[in-house]
Amino acid sequence: MSNEPDFWTSLVDALKTSGVSRLETIANQIQDHTAFEDTLALRAKWLDKTNVECIMNAFKNYKGQIPVKTLSFSYNKEIGDEGSIIIAQSLPKSIVSLGLVSCGITDIGGEAIFSWIKNATQLKMICIENNNFSAELKKKYSDFAKRNPMILVVT
Fold it and tell me: One of this protein's Pfam families, by short name (predicted)?
């Protein structure tokens, strides 16, 4: 039996030691991970790039199987391109559902997320609407959805 903490404990510890009060508040909310099971919903938590980096470092640094299948950062307008790039670089391929609605993302961050979804082997849904994407990037996502009808892509 391993002495390593489970993912939820590792995430809570990372958030509590971040020195950022909003992340400490989130840590307290997810202390009892059984309420979350496989979902991490961080909607409208006033998160920015720095906060996202702390959260995603917990994903990157965890050595075991990450139980999160549904992840939502929606309605955090300050995430922007830098935060979405961090998310795209840190997400496990096992994510089934990803929410990035109204996160202040432009084509720069949208391209990073698009690169991730092409390799996300378990993805079933991505909601990334109400961002600042060009018609060209929206078409790219739409074409992806047509080629992958089992994945719901909302742009």
Answer: LRR_6
